Prior knowledge:
Helix content is 44%, strand content 14%. It is an alpha+beta fold.
Amino acid sequence: MIRTRRLLPLSLLAVALLVVGCAEEPSTTIPSFYRNLGTSTALVDSAMAANMISAYRANNGLAPVTVDPLLEQVAADQARIMAARDNVNASLDNSRDLEDRLTRAGYTTTRAVENVSAGYRTLAEAFSGWRESKSHNAKLLDPAVRRIGIATAYAPTSKYQVYWSVILAADPAS
């Protein structure tokens, strides 16, 4: 009898270990807003960005934004130029004026603003940084905007590595 009592806990332990070993491994899927964008193949999730910004705008009584493919192209071009120059201030060049870039791309609108930044590795970090900056936050909460284009570019040798451009604009003029 003593022997059975000692074996029973050991057999239960063995069964428990077997069950645990057969169980599915926990999901390692990272939400896209926490995905590290500091790689050459990483892409920012523009739908998630639009959802995050729209929810933030809704909390402030503003209309949502929707992703615009043309604004995404203009944002991607800006992010690539900043990464190539390893300088956020590349956005200040006269040739990089937002209105001119939008006009060249064929996007005519009554209102457009842009946030550029560098060094944020995730969408969550960038979004938090923009909200905490008075000037960046004002652009997120601009009541006239309804469209968004967002992009990142990777510069592996830069201390910042990830360059960001987010363009917010009113609907295109007809």
